[in-house]
Amino acid sequence: MFEKILELLEAGGETRNIEFKKTYNWGNPQHKAKIVKCILAMSNTKDGGNLILGIDDEKQGLEKLTGMEQEHFLKLNYDHIVVEVNKFADPPIAFHMYPIEKDNKYFILIKISEFDELPIICKRSGEQGLKEGAVFSRSKTKPESALIRSQSEMRELMDLAITRELDNSI
Which residue of 52, 87, 111, 144 is most buried, as measured by CB atoms within 10 A? Predict the structure, then answer.
């Protein structure tokens, strides 16, 4: 899995389908909300995406591989994240989480799939702009998790939902 992190780094930085975070303290509500928002947004983005914890996006090249604080790494587990994400996601989201230790550095790779049948709606309000009824996606103009703000982004999401429905009906 560490090779996958290196492959994603070679993309040159954050993209619509790649998000880097330096380290996250699961005990901090702001940090939890940022992870939740990113997962909600990537699940509404074509082909989903990858959230990698332990990458300092302000550095260059392999220097970005700073790793997470060990304490934060040990507190993050799939069960806690999926419960927190699904407090906000309607319908519920499934994703894969890969804890990685390499050269005494700690990383977590979260692979988020595109939604199965219906786009994901935020079902309750919380920190970091999580708002009941909101629909988040990864912006085309800036690599960020944000509310769908334009008719073209909403149209893209609706086209994706129609395509998913047609694929599932075959």
Answer: 52
Can you give the three-state secondary structure of 2-23, one letter per residue? HHHHHHHHCCCCCECCEEEECC
DSSP code string of 62-91 = GGG-----HHHHHH--HHHHHHHHHHHEES
Q: What is d(CA 157, CA 5) in angstroms, rounded to the nearest whole number?
A: 27
Paired strand residues for 95: 112
Amino acid sitting at position 22: K
Judge residue 78's burial from the number of C-beta atoms within 10 Å of its C-beta, 0-12 exposed, 13-18 middle, 19 or more buried: middle
Q: Say what the pLDDT of residue 6 is.
A: 87
Residues β-bridged to residue 97: 110
Cβ–Cβ contacts within 10 Å for residue 19, how many?
A: 27
Helices (H), 10-61: 29-43
Amino acid at 88: F
Report, as ranges of residue numbers, the positions in the chain whose pLDDT lies below 70: none
Q: Which of 121, 90, 116, 91 is nearest to 169 (CA)?
A: 116
3-state secondary structure of 96: strand
The pLDDT assigned to 60 comes to 84
